[in-house]
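anyone seen this seq b4? input:
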Amino acid sequence: MGGPHPSDCGKWDSLFPRAADYAQQRSFPDDIVCCGDRSVLVPYTDPGVPLAKAIRQGVEEFQQGHGVLPRVILLQNHGLIAIGGTAGAVEATTRMAEKSAKIFLGAASLGGPVFLPPDQVRRISGRPDELYRQKALKLA
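predicted toks r here
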């Protein structure tokens, strides 16, 4: 697990009303492969124990609903946590979250991103070639 502060993910503070869109939807296959089909979104909470409890609650709810740990946790006004089995997996997830944030922010400035339909996200996340890519990147 890593808690880097990628430059573009910090910009969520100014677009937080749209952060829910980003957390629950995906725009391109690489984002699905590296960051999962959705992320946990934790509203602003004071640092320390209150934030730790909010993160735990968000992760537990995600795990109960999806049967897996999230790869990305977005924290309003705090940043991003990437989860992976290795340092390389955390780095790959962080880099893709940063790329996705750049794309999202650019699209938002032009009227809004166009997300993949949920059935396509599910299809892509279960494709054998994409599962192979996850293993090759040591994400799965």
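Residues 87-109 form the longest helix (23 residues). The mean pLDDT is 87. kinda curious what u guys think
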